[in-house]
Amino acid sequence: MTELPEEVTRVVECGTLDVLVNNAGIGHACALLDTPLDLVQLHMETNYVGAVRIIQLVRASLASKHALHSISDILRVELAPPGH
């Protein structure tokens, strides 16, 4: 997957991506030794690889937000009245 999903593209183009919450996932109640490998792979693909992929897709937007947040923190300290 090298292209952004349409929904992610729209958000990034609007410049409104402030936070990424990786809360999608699947689960099941079964002992590990009884779990078929294809189900384990589905879980890893959905719960881990899916989250990593979305992070990779939006990283430029998130990195720029982090940089702005860091600069704001620096200015807050530098511009604070003495003793604060």
Extract low-pLDDT stretches.
Answer: none
Helix percentage range = 55-70%
Q: What is the typical, i.e. mean, pLDDT?
A: 83
Proportion of residues in β-strands:
under 5%
Instruction: Tally the helices.
Output: 2
H/E element string?
HH
Backbone shape: elongated
Q: Care to count the β-strands?
A: 0
Largest sheet: none
Separation of the first and last Cα atoms: 49 Å
Rg (C-alpha, Å): 19 Å
Secondary-structure content class: mainly alpha
Family: Belongs to the short-chain dehydrogenases/reductases (SDR) family.
Pfam families: adh_short
Keywords: Oxidoreductase
GO molecular function: oxidoreductase activity
In short:
It contains two helices and no strands. It is mainly α and 84 residues long.
In words, what does this structure look like?
This protein is mostly helical. The chain has a domain at 34-79. The chain has 2 helices and no strands. It has helices at residues 6-14, 37-78. The longest helix has 42 residues, at 37-78. The relative contact order is 0.13. The mean pLDDT is 83.
Topology, element by element:
Elements: H1 6-14, H2 37-78
Keywords: Oxidoreductase
Family: Belongs to the short-chain dehydrogenases/reductases (SDR) family.
GO molecular function, one term: oxidoreductase activity
